[in-house]
Amino acid sequence: MTAAEPDLATEVPRVAPADRQRSRTAQAIAAGLAHELRNPVFAIASAARLLRYRVIDDPVIEKNVGRILREAERLNALISALVEYGSPEPIRPVSADPDELWSEVLRAERGVLESKALIVHHTPPASRATCAIDTDQWVRACSQILANAIDAAPEGSDLTLVSTVLPTGEWRSALTNGGPPIPADTLDHAFDLLVSTKPGHAGIGLALASRIATEHGGTITLQSGADGNTATLTLPATRAHG
Question: What's the whole-model pTM score?
Fold first, then answer.
């Protein structure tokens, strides 16, 4: 490394003030909701368990107590997701190839992909990129993006994942599925906290991915049309290697 060459492992991502403020506002909302929900959900679950032990051999009560506990467990998962979004760990960047991290995510999600007979065609750039990345958080963001694409993709279809390094040095990666077009009003709020069109989904996954991308000085966007839906990730200027 020459004196003029930046150390990507210690370089601080540059985040636009407006993006940072929006992210902080959403994080404050998430943390506040988690704080308000935690104690009531714990109390509900505790009361249901006590009722289960006090009332024996009543199938109606047993059935409804089980339902209460299942819903409490679902709410606890929501609280954990809100805490993760609202109280993030600081970014600890190291020099890493973002397409290697994509490959890691695809391997980890192989079972889910196979369950829907989906194939992802991953095309890294000819000149591989090295970026300043918190690998754990970036893998989490990519996992959320992939999960969203899997949900939308028709069973037995192919997904394409194409990465490029632009002349400016920016790394860009586009994941496309053949799902139905997303309504414009939904598309406008795809990365907002607690926005989801899927029953049983809390609407935190894409918001989390967006927050992580923003903290890396990058972006995430979603386009939709007749040919499918494309989520595009970017990271700031990189070093490329063949």
Answer: 0.71
